[in-house]
Amino acid sequence: MPQLTWLVTGCTSGLGKQFIHSILARGDKAIATARGDISRLDVLAKAGAKVYSLDVTASPTDINAIVGTIVEENGQIDIVVPNAGYIEAGISEEVSYEQYLSQFAVNFFGVVKTTQAILPHFRAQKAGTIVFMGSVGGIAGDPGAGPYCSTKHALEGWYECLKIETAPFGIRSIIFELGHFRTKVFNPEHIQIRSSAIEDYTPLRTMVEGFIRGVDGNQPGDPKQAVEVILDVIRGEGAAEGKAFPDRLPLGGDCLVAMRKKAVSNLTVCNEWEDVIRSTDIAK
């Protein structure tokens, strides 16, 4: 396979950082971005990546300009991974409107703006791959994860539309549904828990806070292995060799369980309620 050029957002830690190391190890070119001072990406620059400052919450005009500069300075971009994201935790009723806006600004609209910025380039070259980072939170909900799960469910819907709209231009899209992987996403320095307390929710809130403390550093998923599988799928090699390119792929045993449970539940409802469901159609 020819050398590919990847553009990845949110590369200071976690999956984003692992993406860059794994991309370079495959012999591909890597462009790493993060908000703020690019000195935070020095390790990746020394490893051979090109680095840029890109804040996904900036205006579309600013993001378009930065992506335009990246394309101008690096030539053809083959794959974009709008990876930047974080978790805004809290009980759904307690979380403020401003917190919901903050979560959507990064996890959803940040993805939308980054993708829209690269699409003219992909359409012009009639090729390109968009790698969306979904989540088990986009398949099913969890207590205390209302803001985060909302953004991942929104991403699912947007992805479903975009992949159909852009396929005629030779653009591939895929969404990887990730379970809990051992990154710093649940670290107290990263996760945001900022909700006003309603007494009725105290037991649930206590349980959620205990889960967050307990899961941090104990997630079952291996980030490096997840990224290696993603690269295999995009490049059509290794674990993906001989397999059809999927629309979506769950990663992690916990995500597989959640996806199967949701699929079986939906199928059960369809089968059990089919007559009632069809009864709402206008009679022919």
Explained architecture:
There is one protein chain. It is globular and about 55 Å long. It contains ten helices and nine strands. The protein has about 280 residues and is an alpha/beta fold. About 35% of the residues are buried. The protein has one domain (about 5-250): NAD(P)-binding Rossmann-like Domain (Rossmann fold). The protein starts with a strand and ends in a 6-residue tail after the last helix. Helix 1 (about 15-25) packs across helix 8 (about 225-235). One of its GO terms (molecular function) is oxidoreductase activity. This is Short-chain oxidoreductase.
Structure described in brief:
This protein has helices at 14-25, 42-47, 60-74, 97-107, 109-125, 146-166, 202-215, 223-235, 253-272, 274-278; strands spanning 5-8, 29-34, 50-53, 79-81, 88-89, 128-135, 171-178, 192-193, 248-251. The chain has 284 residues and is an alpha/beta fold. The chain has a single domain, classed as Rossmann fold (3-Layer(aba) Sandwich), CATH 3.40.50.
Q: SSE layout and pairings?
A:
Blueprint: E1 5-8, H1 14-25, E2 29-34, H2 42-47, E3 50-53, H3 60-74, E4 79-81, E5 88-89, H4 97-107, H5 109-125, E6 128-135, H6 146-166, E7 171-178, E8 192-193, H7 202-215, H8 223-235, E9 248-251, H9 253-272, H10 274-278
Parallel strand pairs: 1-2, 1-4, 2-3, 4-6, 5-8, 6-7, 7-9
Helix pairs in contact: 1-8, 3-5, 4-6
Q: Which strand order spans the largest sheet, edge to edge or round the barrel? A: 3-2-1-4-6-7-9
Q: Supply the CATH class.
A: Alpha Beta
Mean pLDDT comes to 94
**Sheet of most strands:** 7 strands, parallel
Spatial separation of the terminal alpha carbons: 54 Å
- Give the low-pLDDT segments: none
CATH A-level architecture: 3-Layer(aba) Sandwich
The dominant shape is globular
- CATH fold descriptor: Rossmann fold
Count of discrete structural domains: 1
Protein name: Short-chain oxidoreductase
GO molecular function, one term: oxidoreductase activity
Pfam families: adh_short
Family: Belongs to the short-chain dehydrogenases/reductases (SDR) family.
